[in-house]
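During the reporting period the student researcher (J.K.) took over the structure-prediction task from the postdoctoral fellow and processed the backlog of single-chain submissions. One of the processed entries is reproduced below for the supervisory committee.
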Amino acid sequence: AWGYDTVFSRFSECQQIFEDEFSLLLSNFLKYSQYTKEAIVDVGNLEEGVYEREYDTVPFWYHCDCGSKARLTAGYEYGFLVGSGECLRCGREYEMKFGLDNEYGLSGIASRISARSLSMPLIFFDGLKVGCYVGGVGGSEYLRQASLVAGNMDMPFPPIVIWRPKDVYFGVGQLE
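J.K. obtained the following structure tokens:
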């Protein structure tokens, strides 16, 4: 309708192509963390926005062998960014160091990571050179928070349109 090229992608299957964008956030993690904290305070709606301690969190989920994922809390060890946390389902502990020898390449784990809600638009918009984004009303708060982070980090952030579709779900409960 708008005359723009449109990309439809399965979110869970395309994350690994954004290694450079994830690496950019990791290499600028102190700024990312600071601006994320400011965005959480500025927007001030913790019930609908991102995780309240998102600024202490590595900007991606790490996928466990059990099929669940781990939230990695960021810290520093000998000057290196370290992400550590446990799987939400099985409790397996993970710890990984980033930035060894000033390299933030994630090729060894790229197939096992996915963007968190705030980092998703930052990564996708930069990586896909998005010109306009149509999102659902459920994501409007974290999109607003991500917009504030992007603005402070001089990252691209296209115009956002919030769409209120009528969801129709045909499940077992609805068949009754």
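The committee noted the following: Strands lie at 57-63, 69-77, 80-86, 93-98, 113-115, 133-136, 160-163.
J.K. will present the remaining backlog at the next meeting.
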